[in-house]
TrEMBL record:
This is transketolase. Homodimer. It comes from Ceratodon purpureus. Thiamine diphosphate binds at residues 221, 270-272, 312, 341, 417, 593. GO terms for biological process: pentose-phosphate shunt. The keyword Metal-binding applies.
Length: 824
């Protein structure tokens, strides 16, 4: 009927109204954006007070270059994420209902595409929208007559015009920023469009709704694609003004997507390949929670995970590692879309790369679909993503044969990867797309409607999900309690009481052994703990023995067997953490192999993912395996990562404290650096509470008012050696303090007064003792102190012999101390 109306002569009047409505809307957007930018039209969301009462950062005035405002926006965005996460269980159903009335949105259709001509959006009548589309499509066709009675044809034209508009926003954004990466967003605009307009389940009004589909842009340089889709679908976090601020300091549209900066971005990406592993982690989290909580008659965990990867991701090992695990684990709700454009920065991929990537994924256990010409047959991709991938029992790899920089004169060449477009090129694109005489950043009003129609659908789905959760809570109150506890992001009350208390007669063990006891104790009270080791479970002592393995048959299992894929393990763990469903990922290997996963560990810190890294065999003290396995510089490298907490506990008491720190820090990653060699469970004076401060006095024979002559500062297994040396020195009448500096980062955060109390500046004779790199220790021992460290690589031998060779004995520490004390 709508189509008939379009064809009939209701006439110029409707065209006139719709046209001028559109122009009016545009007038508001453009005019207001140049001055004090506040989006005013009811259909276009503005920043400010969000529905759940949390203040969102509001960008107003001429904020370009106003660093303080922008950084405030970033900080509160990060805060907002957390606040919203905690509230995501609760839906603001009343305001959803209000909106439903306002938009006249159809009922949920279970994630299926809703043809635009069936619906209207945002208060405009269907007829007005249809007329406006007819006018726009006629323009797109260069005045040619369309086949208006064919609804499929019409939807294809609408799809095409939305994509054209997205491409123009890409061009305007990079040309305004004079920076950025337009090649991928131009080449993959259809993919972004189909995902956000026809496929994904999300509610832009509540970006952290638990059951939303997740999207990861592994080729993070293509971030404009994500910013534009977020903007068009109505996320408060990306206004048109934000697109104008691409890559500027403090903007919500940084050069690569950052989850802590922009609501709607699930994970921070940029280092190629990481995103594929993150997506595997998100899909793994979903599969695990679905298996644990869903019932035949009540489903509360049910979403898909989508990821776009490029040639760079295809080349990086981490993506292959992660894909291999995903294939083995049959993560069938994961869909990876490959931007197969045959170009990278330096030129065509043929320079370096000739394998058939699709076949590789097939060999890894994936379902493979090839899309030959998305530009002329968008429905082939729609069908692949909406239907074929959705019913697959394996993860799906959709290989889209794309053309980088589509529509530019640089199309299909590496030149399109990054950079701006010159005037000629812009003219050429405007002409080809019939976009002449339009202002930069112009958005056709109906394009917003298209996206909003779909996003509104997500609003309804969230409402339905809330009802399902209520129903579930009635039928399965115990499971519901656990589920809600988990997704609230809060730890259960008093969980710390489950940690063991180690008595003085505890059997001597390595710190990895004490860790095993702690892990198994807390696994009983922390339903979110999940993870495992990269094929070293028995060496790392990381296995939760009360729970099964996570496997295709038992996805409810909490022990993940990562295989020998350290890098992917860390990237997957980031994905699990950023699923934001209360899961606490654990990733374990030898400390030496932290180098294999370093970039993903760095991203844990950057993206505030509270991954717990359990890294054992933490010094040359591991002995026989020799220098290839003996870490030296790893500790200092990890300590150098901003936001990473590296704990090197000395005994069982300190391992307990390290667990308290690691588990309670849900938005910061931690490293538990643990030994292979055995140490006493209870060094006199050690304590879990001391660990919470990062550094504390373990022993001191100085009178209460006096100062020691010497301070020995130790970490890990070397603390016991410090204690033994201190005893020797005290025997000779010396006043000696022993300090455990178990976590530099925590100690550095203490008040100056506290730090001065522990390491009084007047005591200049200090010795640090750590079987690792000397780098960084000078800060704690001062210019007059001594650093007992490993200055070269280790060697193979019995651990006691190796320690002796490198000076890590009580005798040598005593000797070094005596020399220092003898100095003037
Ligand atoms: C691990 C890593 N190495 C290098 C880079 C730098 N880099 C960014 S994009 C890119 C080329 C990527 O090619 P492709 O994925 O095909 O993207 P396209 O050029 O097709 O957009 C490189 C080398 C990076 N971001 N991450
Ligand atoms: Mg490429």
């Amino acid at each position: 009927m709508v189509v008939n109306l379009l064809g009939s002569g209701i006439g110029k009047y409707i065209f006139f109204v719709s046209r001028y409505c559109g122009e009016l809307l545009r007038f508001f957007r453009v005019t207001l954006s140049t001055g004090s930018y506040v989006c005013t039209c009811s259909e276009f969301p503005s920043t400010g007070e969000s529905k759940d009462g949390v203040q969102t950062p509001k960008l107003s005035g001429n904020w370009k270059g106003d660093r303080s405002k922008l950084e405030g926006a970033k900080a509160s965005s990060s805060f907002l994420r957390r606040a919203k996460m905690a509230q995501s269980v609760r839906a603001d159903s009343q305001s959803l209902k209000d909106e439903q009335v306002q938009t006249g949105r159809p009922g949920s259709q279970n994630g299926q595409s809703v043809p635009s001509q069936m619906v209207n959006g945002n208060g405009r009548s269907k007829e007005d929208s249809s007329k406006a589309w007819k006018e726009e499509i006629t323009r797109m066709l260069g005045g040619k007559e369309g086949n208006w009675s064919d609804s499929q044809w019409l939807q294809a034209q609408i799809d095409k015009r939305c994509v054209d508009n997205m491409r123009m926003l890409v061009v305007d954004s990079v040309n305004t920023a004079k920076a950025g990466h337009p090649g991928l967003p131009l080449g993959m605009a259809e993919v972004g469009y189909v995902l956000w307009r026809h496929t994904m389940k999300y509610n832009p009004k509540n970006p952290n709704w638990f059951n939303r589909d997740r999207f990861v842009l592994s080729a993070g340089h293509g971030c404009l694609l994500q910013y534009i889709t977020l903007h068009l679908s109505g996320y408060d976090s990306v206004q048109i003004e934000d697109l104008k601020q691409l890559c500027q300091i403090g903007s919500r549209t940084p050069g690569h997507p950052e989850n802590v900066t922009t609501d709607g971005i699930e994970v921070t990406t940029g280092p190629l390949g990481q995103g594929v592993a993150n997506a595997v982690g998100l899909a793994l989290a979903e599969k695990h929670l679905a298996a644990r909580f869903n019932k035949d008659d009540a489903v509360i965990v049910d979403h898909r995970t989508f990821c776009i990867m490029g040639d760079g991701c295809a080349m990086e090992g981490i993506a292959n590692e992660a894909a291999s695990l995903a294939g083995n684990m049959k993560l069938n709700k994961l869909t990876v879309i490959y931007d197969d454009n045959h170009n990278t920065i330096d030129g065509p991929t043929s320079l370096t790369f000739s394998e058939d990537v699709g076949k590789r994924f097939e060999a890894l256990g994936w379902n493979r679909i090839v899309i030959d010409d998305i530009y002329h047959d968008i429905s082939s991709f729609k069908n692949a993503v909406l239907t074929e991938a959705a019913k697959s029992d394996k993860p799906t790899f959709i290989q889209v044969k794309s053309r980088i920089g589509r529509e530019s004169v640089k199309e299909d060449t590496a030149k399109a990867h990054h950079g701006t477009f010159d005037e000629e090129d812009v003219k050429h694109m405007h002409k080809n797309l019939h976009w002449e005489d339009r202002e930069p950043f112009y958005v056709i009003p109906q394009v917003y409607e298209e996206f909003t129609n779909h996003a509104n659908h997500g609003v309804a789905e969230e409402e339905e999900w809330n009802k399902s959760l209520e129903d579930y809570s009635r039928k399965y109150p115990n499971e519901a309690r656990e589920f809600k506890q988990l997704i609230s992001g809060q730890l259960p009350d008093n969980w710390e009481e489950a940690l063991p208390q180690f008595s003085a007669d505890e059997k001597i063990d390595a710190t990895r052994g004490y860790s095993e006891k702690c892990l198994n104790a807390v696994s009983k009270v922390l339903p979110g703990l999940i993870g495992g080791s990269a094929d070293l479970a028995s060496s790392n002592k990381v296995y939760m023995s009360d729970f099964p393995d996570f496997s295709p048959d038992t996805p409810e299992g909490r022990n993940v067997r990562y295989g020998i894929r350290e890098h992917a393990m860390a990237g997957i763990s980031n994905g699990i953490a950023l699923h934001n469903s209360g899961l606490i990922p654990i990733a374990a290997t030898f400390l030496i192999f932290s180098d294999y996963m370093k970039n993903a560990m760095r991203l844990s810190a950057l993206s505030e993912a509270g991954v717990i890294y359990i890294l054992t065999h933490d010094s040359i003290g591991l002995g026989e395996d020799g220098p290839t396995h003996q870490p030296v510089e790893q500790l200092v490298g990890l300590r150098a990562i901003p936001g990473m907490y590296v704990l090197r506990p000395a005994d069982a008491n300190e391992v307990v404290g390290a667990y308290k720190v690691a588990i309670s820090r849900r938005h910061e990653p931690t490293v538990l650096s643990l030994s292979r060699q055995k140490v006493s469970a209870n060094i006199a004076g050690s304590s879990p509470e001391g660990v919470l401060k990062g550094g504390y006095v373990v022993s001191d024979n100085t009178d209460s008012n006096g100062l020691p002559e010497l301070i020995l500062i130790g970490t890990g297994t070397e603390l016991a050696l410090c204690e033994a040396a201190a005893e020797n020195l005290r025997h000779d009448g010396k006043k000696v303090r022993v300090v455990s500096l178990v976590c530099w980062q925590l100690f550095d955060q203490q008040s100056e007064e506290y730090r001065e109390k522990i390491l009084p500046s007047k005591v200049e004779k200090r010795i640090s003792v750590e079987a690792g790199s000397p780098l960084g220790w000078r800060e704690y021992v001062g210019s007059k102190g001594k650093v007992l460290a490993v200055y070269t690589f280790g060697c193979s031998g019995a651990y006691t012999e190796v320690f002796k060779k490198y000076g890590f004995t009580a005798e040598n520490i005593t000797k070094v101390a005596q020399e220092l004390l003898a100095e003037a």
